[in-house]
Amino acid sequence: MASKKGNGHWGNPIQTGSAFDFRSDVITTPSLGMLEAIQQATLNDDVYGEDQTTRSFENQIAAMCGKEAAVLVVSGTMANQLSIRALLHQPPYSILADSQAHIIHFEAGGLAHLSGAMVQAIRPMNGLYITLADIEKHAILSDQPERCPTKTISIENTAHGNIIPLNELHKIKYWAAKHGIGVHIDGARLWHAVVAGAGTLEQFASYCDALTLSFNKALGAPMGAMVVGSQDLIKRVRRLRQSIGGGVRQTGIMAAMARQAVLDNFGAKQVDSRGELEKTHDMAKMLGRAWTDAGGRLLRPVETNMVWLDMKSAGISIEAFNEMGKRHGILVNGKRIMVHHQICEAANQKLTRMFDELLTPIQATVSGIVLNSALSKNKSAIVIASTLGSLVRRKRRLFNAREFKISFFRATDKACEISYTGCANKTGASGRAYQGTGRARVMDMRCWGRVK
Ligand SMILES: Cc1ncc(COP(=O)(O)O)c(C=O)c1O
Asked: Which Pfam families would you find in this protein's record (predicted)?
């Protein structure tokens, strides 16, 4: 089941596997309602501008956002790239964005070849999202010939699950307008900010010149995104879309599914009226608490549907974590846990159990072994125990072992050498016994003074 992908049945997340998949919200599968919506869609040509389903959906989204116009495109990436390109006019120009932004890392370098722009990737000072203080510090306003002026600021909201509040966006937009700089919001998951009560779509849209919205994230459509802005901007986007082959003919099919996704999981107005996404926030918060209750640390506060686990402090690699997920019957992809509307309760329970197993220390076994062993006189048993403890914990994660026996060790000032044998625990897939030799460094020398 969960660890392999299912057969892809319409409308059944258990069968498609998305109910157990925490890797992203893009893996959600279309509903039966979307299939029915296709059957009602008009099938006219959108490049000729003749498809009624598409046009009425574009008008609906523009109205929800309080903007003049909107244009449907196939993906969020296309929406972002076209928005930014349309905001830029005469090079040289640069785009200022969060150093972790999707437009920088996951859009195949489109900013370089589609916009020919320099990118100013900045690390937000507050560790969460871009603020005006970051922009004022880094934007290039100079018209000196050797400089490349900032002409667009691109902001992701939500930013990795965290919400950039309206008052910050207001300040940014005001400042940008004063300096003739365009503002783009990558609102792939703006739905979540609205659901969290941070503002309406219209309020968020009022603080940018181009807004992109995705229907295949959060809402569950299989494809489709929208660029929303002024008439003039959308006219430019339509031409640019055509120039990169993004003019699709019978888009009514795509528009019908996307519109159904909005209706099903958000509602027809500017504010969430369905409560579907709110449930994902509750689940994410519950999972965040489960992780911290088990002793883990979070990299970001949980505000919407994402939980960011501090894997380093938990001492586990991404690969081992992902493997462990498969053994528990769920799919995860490292430190970002993404909750979506198709995740089921059983998947939450599996993940919570996995957190417990991962973070619960097995000190008792270790100290028993240490006390039974012949320690060299000048070493503290407790330090050795804790060193061995962390080593064994790491090994246990690697092998998913409960029983771990240390048969030999030699301790020096800097290292602790052991040989060990163990066997996979009851949830382990292989059940095989294993053995080997490990070295653990004594990490915190200050401990020596404290525990003696
Ligand atoms: C913040 C953000 N923007 C844009 C995109 C691109 O969307 P798409 O996969 O539809 O191209 C993604 C994809 O995950 C995203 O996370």
From this structure: Beta_elim_lyase (PF01212)
Ligand 1 pocket check for 139: Cβ under 6 Å: no
Domains and CATH numbers, the chain: 13-24+280-359 (3.90.1150.10), 31-265 (3.40.640.10), 363-451 (no CATH)
Tens-digit pLDDT profile for residues 310-351: 988 887 889 989 999 999 999 999 999 999 999 999 999 999
Which of 391, 394, 388 has its CA nearest to residue 315?
A: 394
Mutate which of 105, 155, 217 for ligand 1 pocket (most atoms within 8 A of beta carbon): 217
**Using H for helix, E for strand and C for coil, what is the string for 110-176?**
HHHHHCCCEEEEECCCCCCCCCHHHHHHHCCCCCCCCCCCEEEEEEECCECCECCCHHHHHHHHHHH
193 touches 169 (CB < 8 A)? no
Q: Phi/psi zone of residue 369: left (φ > 0), alpha (ψ -120 to 50 degrees), beta?
A: alpha
186 lines ligand 1 (CB under 6 A): yes
pLDDT digits (tens, 9 = 90+) for 148-168: 999 999 999 999 999 999 999
